[in-house]
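Throughout our pipeline, every protein is held as a single compact record rather than as scattered files. Such a record has a labelled line for the sequence and another for the backbone structure tokens. The remainder of this section carries one protein's record, kept here as part of the documentation:
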Amino acid sequence: MKATIVFLLAAVATGNAQTAATPQQPTPPQVKDQITVTADRSLSPIGETAKTTYVLESTQIHEYPSVTLDETLRQHAGFELFRRSSYRVQNPTSAGISLRGLGSTAVSRTLVLEDGAPLNDPFGGWIHWSESPQQTVQSVLLVSGGGSDLYGSSALGGVIDVIPVTASPTRLDLSGVGGSQSTSDVTGTLTQTTHFLDALIAGESLRTAGYILTDPTIIGAADVPANVTSQSYRTELGRRDHHSDRIFLTGALLNESRSNGTPLTTNATRLWRYLAGFDPPDTGRLSSRVRAFGSNEGYRQSFSSIVASRATESLTRLQRVRSQELGATADGTLHFSHAAAVVGADIRDVRATDDETPISKGLPNGRANVTARQRFIGGFGELMGEYKGWSGAASLRADRASNLDIVQVTTTTTRPADRTEIVLSPRVGVVRRLGTHADVHASGFRAFREPSMNELYRTGQVGSQTTLANASLLSERATGWEIGTQVVSQGRMSPTFHATYFWTEINRPVSAVLVSQTATTITNMRQNLGQIRSRGVELSGEVHPIRAVSVTVGYQYANATVTKFSALTSLVGNWIPEVPRQSFTGQIHAVNKRLGELTVAARASGMAFDDAGNQFALSGFYSLDVSGHRALGRFVDATFLVQNLTNERPQVARTPTLTLGSPIFAEAGLKLHFSRAKTGVNP
């Protein structure tokens, strides 16, 4: 910490010296909440619409003290995964996103996109945060609030748009870091552009021995470190005419294997994705784009039962899931002088097989196999306009969501009837500019989420907590509104401030409800609760006290509770699992020409419960992280990061066994970068 303080003082001194020598030029904010249409499906927005968007630019992604992308997104106070730990050692089926206190289970209530195609797992809805090599992420847009009016199912809680880097003139970037918990992370990116073709190839290999998840006071012989070996690759070929159009083809592969904290509990994923896109020339009046995408995935997992002393475990279940996904989307925008109209449509088809083998006394004991299909077809329209300081938008989408071709095989074969729902998702928003630096906004929406095939058909387990599937689940329906204000100043210190009050009510939310419990095991079943409600405030601000230093803070208060559940009235009034009432984030970023760049990040979260019955409390926690880099020459940078400087391990889960997050973690390494412009070397 002394070194950190010295660096910040040096940055302040440098900043003051620069201010004394020359008039200070305001540095525009780089991470802020905005009211924008950037994440909308209009290519050339008209005015502003009332959607709260958190923007992470390249600097905030690559300078933040994080190893995986989910850790990076925790700069936003309202962002949290289903479990509090990092995806670095987390089971993928616990990687659902919670925004604005809406909670999640394995599945995410937030849609994640990359270049217009969904990244949510086609079978389970969770996010594979190691899927894209980190150096291929250019920026991220995080939109809070329902997005079903434009994107349909999975966007009930919002939309996260990952903007990838694109090919540039010949450039090679290499990075190698190593650290505690026997961690190594090697990345490489090569890009090339010619008159006829642009190309990019990137890869990342992450390995970590991890740490033991179980509370040290109850560790037994059955506890081993949770770890991961992961490789991800991305390639892109295409042609980009910066003045007219773009055509491209992208392929990606994720291959990873994980230990989940005991010798017998493991999982592995192999996921192929492909994407083709065409953005025709923009005529000035009409702009459009087309995407076709698909994926092929194999996932396997094993589960076990552990005795109370945690001395031994026995295998209980083996699972294999195979899924294929195909989809396409197209939209177009017609521009007028003060208005625009957007229309679009998309289709997505997912086919999956879940093959489960129960194990008893070390031997297979039956079989459970489910083959099913989901199909989503939707179309939408949106009108946007601006006039004398007012701007707004109104949109409406219609979706047809179907569960088809279901075959369940146990001791007998059953074929449940197909189910189809037609859902309408409207939204309206308005913004009023107040001078040149401020505005107020308000919006209301309806949104929905169809249960994933994981929730409908697959049994899941975390530790000694088993969650049963429920093929009768109905879609979640949400109603919400928000009102807020934003102040953005370009004057001295470039301060920005944003405040939003939000209110969201979800009918028939899917949650894990207790079925039975013993001293060592918990059995839940996914059920539609009657209703949950989350209401609260989001606050964020940024200031540049001097050119060399920026300070960013964020805060969320979310009162998220069960408001109706006739099947079990004792749950009414309970907190939504895994949702704290209060969350805080803060960062200080300093630049010094001699010492380099330094980021200090703080994060705090209040108490939460790990179950719908609010029996298992998870204590509040805080963490302090730091990262930095310094140029060692023309082509080389030295980097480091330290997470959890205070070594205070957060409580992650009670299943009913208490598991904890990572102890202090550190890594350091080198980054090499070479580039060649058409006229010569230009690093």
In short: The chain is about 5% helix and 60% strand.
